[in-house]
Design a protein that fits this description.
There is one protein chain. The protein is an alpha/beta fold. It has a single domain, classed as 3-Layer(aba) Sandwich (Rossmann fold), CATH 3.40.50.150. Helices cover 40% and strands 23% of the residues. About 2% of the residues have low confidence.
């Protein structure tokens, strides 16, 4: 996808946010994703490699092909895996709507935080299904910004989150896509589809999540669309500032924060 379609942009701060998110959510999202020795895995839309390094470590004897449409993102992903001495990954520039691979090339497909940015996920799922072997699996992970809830309650914070939801919709994406993974995957013709919600719950007894998720993942993601939200008149500056302060307030000693991801697995 192009930077025009990726509402969060490609800044250095966004790269850091993606890495913080991956580190904070490794166990929650990836503890049950493992591939066997010699199996081939296509990671579609790998970006800067935040999820790639987790997949490569979890399945050191599998062979990963991680693709993205952005050469710059792939270069950063390659540097990251090289620094960690991960040798079971190859990177290629590919458009997931038009992959160059032959039919039934891969044993498995993995897609994380990609479908939310596509105007229509169906063609991408059809193309991914094409390159998947018969009886192979697809794993899809997506969030749902509408699932965010927190204490202390703040109407202004909800309005800032709604700005992100509306901006992503305006760019042709769907930040509420997590709740519709089952009909999407089943509708693409995959069988035995199962979806499991993965809720992140954060309070001050979990300082690694307070920092890694509440502050550096979710609030940083919302805060990153400030200029776009104000330019489009989605919110006034005073309400925006109040909402961001309220989101950071949930990371204090007496605050709490919840968010739900959804993980779908289907078989061809």
């Amino acid at each position: 996808m192009s930077s025009k379609k990726y509402v969060h942009g490609y800044s250095e701060r966004e790269e850091d946010r993606l890495r913080d998110q991956a580190r904070a959510l490794t166990d929650l999202l990836h503890h049950d994703t493992h591939y066997s020795s010699g199996e081939t895995v296509l990671e579609a839309g790998c970006g800067v490699g935040a999820q790639t390094v987790i997949l490569a470590r979890n399945s050191v004897e599998a062979v990963l092909t991680s693709v993205d449409i952005s050469p710059d993102s792939l270069a950063m992903a390659q540097e990251r895996t090289a620094a960690l001495k991960l040798t079971n990954v190859r990177f290629q520039v590919q458009d997931i709507l038009d992959l160059s691979y032959p039919d039934e090339e891969f044993h498995h497909v993995f897609v994380c935080f990609v479908l939310e940015h596509l105007p229509d996920p169906a063609p991408a799922l059809a193309e991914l299904k094409r390159v998947l072997r018969q009886d192979g699996t697809i794993t899809v992970i997506e969030g749902d910004h509408g699932s965010a809830c927190f204490y202390p309650y703040s109407a202004a914070a909800l309005k800032t989150i709604k700005c992100l939801i509306d901006l992503q919709a305006g760019a042709g994406g769907d930040s509420l896509i997590g709740r519709r993974l089952y009909p999407l995957i089943a509708g693409a013709g995959f069988r035995n589809v199962s979806v499991s919600p993965r809720m992140v719950y954060v309070d001050s007894s979990r300082p690694e999540l307070v920092e890694g998720f509440t502050r550096n993942t979710f609030t940083a993601m919302v805060e990153g669309v400030r200029d776009q939200a104000l330019e489009k008149g989605l919110i006034d500056e005073a309400t925006w500032d109040e909402g961001i302060r309220a989101l950071y307030r949930t990371a204090e000693a007496d605050g709490t924060f919840c968010y739900t991801f959804f993980k779908a697995v289907g078989r061809k």
